[in-house]
Sequence to fold (336 residues):
Amino acid sequence: MGHFTKKSKAKPEISTASLPDIIFMLLIFFMVTTVLREQEVQVRTILPQAEALTKIEQKRYVSYIWMGPEKLRGNRFGETRVQIDDAIIEDMTNIRSIMYKKLTEEPRLIVSMRVDEESEMGVVTDTQQELRKGGALRINYSSKRDISGL
Amino acid sequence: MGVLAKKKERREAEIPTSSMADIAFLLLIFFLVTTTIDVDTGIGMTLPPELDENVEPPPVKERNSLKILINSAGQVLLEDLPSSVTQIRGEVQTHVQNQGQDPRYSESPTKALVSIKTDRQTPYNLYIQTLDEVWMAYFEIWDNEARSLGFANYVEYRSNLEEGAENEIRKKWPAQISLAEPDPGE
Fold:
């Protein structure tokens, strides 16, 4: 019983030992959520495999264009579509103005084309023609390293 | 009232903090595992600027350009000869390293040009494979050149280049890959 009376005398204190942990938790939370922008890719892009790859070191110059069959409900895929940022491009001629605007904001722009490996060249060529009209000439065909070859 | 106050005083007012670190670590590990920091890799290209209708494209001698045509059926034509994707690398190297010897190939590496033409129905995968082979041909040439300069490979040479210094290997063996103008509408 004497033990209990002793404890009741102790002043209630909020421990600060966990503060650094809480800060770390917040830090991690913001690191994770702010760096990765919510960009839902609405087309399927299984990247082709290649050997002669180069890394894009300056990631902030990169702007993505996705091309591939549109994802539909129930694991089905529709027609090949082009997506820039969050929106699917309905009219291909819009690409030139979008890219021109991006280029004025960032002159060192690199356009990374994430094209599904089962696509046909038609859509890629059309996009490239638009990119040329917009003046965005630095492109990158996003591809993965061939794992089976290693 | 007095009874209530007494009760409160007796209550344990401490939150166990020893597990806090564990929770934080758990979260850290969770995010570490789930976030994929994917390094962006790909094949870099520079598109030609838009054609000016009034300006004629610079003339390229027939022998200096190696034409690769990939048709809609996925067949590769190297200088109008049917061939396979695996042959491209060797052919590009012969073409670039010809130094004017064989009249069918280029006059000099700086004049050598590789032209890739595709159809609208050409599979993208095949196009990438072709482009990959062409680039690998150049990479191997650069590797050889770097080795003759005393480096292990081209990557080592490039990382040893000083800021602003000219890349002599690429100057000697420029990779001139041209993507042919698409045919105007069907």
User: Anything to note?
Assistant: The longest strand of chain A covers residues 62-72. Strands of chain A lie at 49-50, 54-55, 62-72, 76-84, 87-89, 110-115, 138-142, 144-145. Residues 19-35 of chain A form the longest helix (17 residues).
